[in-house]
Design goal:
By secondary structure, this protein is α+β, with helices and mostly antiparallel strands. The chain has one domain. The chain contains two helices and two strands, in the order E-H-E-H. It has a two-stranded parallel ribbon with strand order 1-2. Helix 1 packs across helix 2. The longest helix has 18 residues. The chain is globular.
C-alpha cells in the first residue's frame, strides 16, 4: 500500500497502530520501531497532518505510539 491511499483532500494521513496492549513485549524494541515508522511518515507529511489512530486503548503498543505522536506534534 502507498501512503497516498490514506490521504484525504486535506492532506491528512491517518496512521493506524495495532499491537499488544496487555501482553508482555520488549518496550525498547517497540519504541524503536515506532520512532522509525514516524520518521518515515514525517519525510512525506508535516507532523500537523499526521493523525495517530488506535482502538482507544492507552496501554502497551498503542500507548507508546500515542506518546510519540504527541511528542512530534501529531494528533
Amino acid at each position: 500500500m502507498k501512503f497516498q491511499e490514506f490521504v484525504d483532500h486535506k492532506k491528512t494521513v491517518k496512521v493506524g497502530v495495532v499491537g499488544f496492549s496487555a501482553q508482555k513485549f520488549d518496550i525498547s524494541k517497540a519504541k524503536a520501531h515506532i520512532v522509525e515508522a514516524f520518521d518515515k511518515i514525517e519525510k512525506d507529511f508535516s507532523p500537523k497532518n499526521i493523525h495517530c489512530i488506535s482502538g482507544l486503548t492507552d496501554l502497551g503498543i498503542p500507548a507508546l505510539a500515542y506518546r510519540e505522536a504527541k511528542k512530534r506534534g501529531c494528533r
